[in-house]
Structure formats: structure tokens, C-alpha cells
Amino acid sequence: MKKKVAFYTLGCKLNFSETSTIARSFTNEGFDRVEFNEVADIYVINTCSVTENADKRFKSIVKQAQKVNPDAFVAAVGCYAQLKPQELADVNGVDLVLGATEKFNLTSYINELLDNPDRNKGAGVVHSCEIENADFYVGSYSIGDRTRAFLKVQDGCDYKCTYCTIPLARGISRSDTMESVIKNAKEIAAQNIKEIVLTGVNIGDYGKGEFGNKKHEHTFLDLVKELDRVEGIERLRISSIEPNLLKNETIDLVSKSRAFVPHFHIPLQSGNNEILKKMKRRYMKELYVDRVSKIKEVMPHACIGVDVIVGFPGESDEHFLETYNFLNTLDISYLHVFTYSERDNTDAAVMEGVVAKKVRAKRSKMLRGLSAKKRRAFYESQLGSTRTVLFESENKEGYIHGFTENYVKVKTPWNPDLVNTLHDVELTKIDEDGTVRFEFETLLVH
Can you give 100-139 as a three-state secondary structure string? Predict the structure, then answer.
């Protein structure tokens, strides 16, 4: 009987790409992959450490696995596993914890433990390197999990933002080779996947002059140009990119691109320069205005998403209102709002001016309300236009959903023939749930 393995991913697109790559290594060794709520011999949890909530969810996910199969082997990998390996190993039911450099050898560690009849079930064996040793690159991409694929092009970060643990969890900034990225993109295209999302920790840093002991020949702009030439990929989407690394040349290239879509997600974190300095961000809000203006100048229909943190130490009511008003006046499309949570071993965790959690929650609610207003205004601005929709694979309450190239979410009555297909759609009406709804007569084959 083949052993069965199941995966659960917390956190970002990068984690999803790495989970998928790890899952393929199991399949290559003869394991059957099953859903996490099914009976499996091995459960793998890819962890996140960005927020306190992601930390807390880990225990409940372990319990979920144990409920399905109390005798199963449970392994933890990912950022939280690198930062606090012993803490995870001490969770009841966890058998193995692997850090940043070990996670891609998960099958070897598991086979070794499974072959040991004397192993102590639930003992929580830890294999975790010092993060300074995470100086090599492992390429990854997700496939088969979604209509679109997440393609990892970069890992690690050299920035020292005072609230962030990612450099401690993933190490220095390093990039995949151009040849490897293009090879992976072609493999994805061969699987009839229509859209690729580029992902990494700091993808605008791709191909920086040096990392570790290796020199890199290419820039992010070079990468974008080469990917745009890969046949078989209908859409390419840039995930989160720092405003100081999003250059005019890249924006111009996207505006004229064959495959890159007019959608950018650009972290802001605060609309107040004093707070940006305390965060050790590498720009002031004026640069952010410049980036948004440039995008809208060459792509008026572009969708722009924004990351923002509320409740950072020292953020007064005045600072927050400045951020709120700044975002309110910007020509952006939606917000991802993060409530600041203290992370061990970060500079921000010991700063003065701690904001009460009730105040953080109130500010978060205000910005989520602003996000809904911004998204609605953006959707309304798109009504009357014809956009191309890529349909997803899920039947949600009798509807099939999809996204336009500029990230407008649409729905229409469920039709399995539409799954993973591209169609031109006239955007005519916003439904009660905030999505754009249309009927089949407005559907044009792409």
C-alpha cells in the first residue's frame, strides 16, 4: 500500500509555491497526495510567522490532523519552524520540525524516522540550521492546486524593517537563475496553466549584484522581459513589489506587454513619514504617490493593491489619520490591512509608545471599511468595459468565479466548461456581494 501524505499551508504565495514543490518530491517517491481533511500517514504543515494569528493557528491545525488520524506522522516546516523550532516540537503530536535549509529534504528525514522502529512517536525531532547558512537557492512553483501557478523567483531579504522576522526566517536575499526561472515557466505552461504569479520575499530585488559568494547577471527588468517571451503563458502577474524597487522601465514594459497584466500590489505600511522611518522602510510617502501616478498615467485601468500596518509603536491618532487620509485620496483599488503584532527579536518589539490592542482593532476596522469603499469605486470605474476573465475551478453556491486581467472579481452561474478558460466579458453590474455578475449572453470566447 502506498503511504498517503497531506499538506496544509499557512501564509503567503511563496509558501504555497514551496509546499507544492515539496509535495512533488513525495509524489516522485511513490507517496499518494490526499486532502488535509482525509486520512493520511503523514501530515505536513508549512508555517508562517508574519502575524501572531498564524502562530496560534498551528496548534489547531495539528489537532485537526490528529483528529483524522491519531497515529499519523506530523511534520512542521517553514518560517515559524525556523524561528521557534523547539516551540513547535513541544506541541503535542508533532514528530518532526525542519528549518529553512532542511525543508526541501523532508522526504529523506521522514523516511529515516519511519524506518526507525524504536522512534518515539510525538518526540518532536528538530533539524534547524543557523539562518546564516541559508545562502543557497531552491527553485519552486505551485501547480495543480489552483487555476494559476505561483512561481518563486527570489528568496530571503536584506532589508531590516523593524517589525519583520522574515530575514531571520529566510536569510539573505538570493535569486534563481534566469535559465531556471524560464525552465520552470515553460514546465508550468506545458500543464495548460493560463496564469503565472511571480513570487518571492522581495522580488524587486531579483538579480541584485551579489548574494552569498555568487554574482548574478540579470535584473528584475531582464527577468520580466524574458518571461514575456515564453510561449503558452496567457498571463503573468507580479505579486507584491517594494515601491522603491518598482522602476519606471518595469511599469512601461508591463503597459506594453504581451502577457503581464495591469495589476500591482505595492506595500506602503504607513502614510506618515515619521512612522515609515521608525519602520526603516526605504522610501517616503512622496515616492509612493509617484509610483501610483506613473502606473495610472500609462495604465488608467490598472488595479493597485496596498499593504498597510496599523498600530505600530508610536503611531498616534494623528499619524493614523494622516495614513487614512493619504490612502483615501490615492487612486488605489484595495487594501490588505495588517494589525501590528509584536514579533520576538525585532526592534519594534521593544519600542516605546505601544498602541493599545483595542485601538489597533479600531484602526484596522476603519481601514477595512476604506478598502471596501475603494474596491467598490474601482469596480464601478470598470463597468461598461470589456475585460478578459480567467475562470476558477470551484463551484461556490452555484456560481463560478474568475478574475479579469486587472483583478476585478466576476461570477456567473456554474458551468464546468468554463473552468480554466479565458473569455472576454462585458462588465455591466455589481452584485450584492460586491462581485461583478454577468449572464452568458455577455460572454465572448477568447
Answer: CCCHHHHHHHHHHHHCCCCCCCCCCEEECCCHHHCCCCCC
Closest C-alpha among 219, 256, 251 to residue 238? 251
Sheet with 195-199: list strands edge to edge. Answer: 148-152, 195-199, 235-238
Query: Using CA atoms, how far apart are residues 23 and 273, in angstroms rounded to an integer?
Result: 43
Residue position matching grid coordinates 505552461: 189
CA distance 256 to 224: 12
State pTM to two decimals. 0.89
287 contacts 247 by C-beta, under 8 angstroms: no
* Extended beta strands in 55-114, E state: 73-78, 96-98
Rg (CA), the chain: 22
Q: How many CB atoms lie within 10 A of CB 369?
A: 13
- The single residue listed with the C-alpha cell 483599488 is 333
Q: Angle 35-16-415 (CA atoms, 0-180°, nearest 5)?
A: 60
- Residue 350, classified by CB atoms within 10 Å of its CB into exposed (0-12), middle (13-18) or buried (19+), is exposed
- Domains recognised in the chain with CATH numbers: 4-129 (3.40.50.2300), 134-261 (3.30.750.210), 270-280+290-380 (3.30.750.200), 386-445 (2.40.50)
pLDDT in tens, 379-418: 999 999 999 999 998 888 899 999 999 999 999 999 999 9
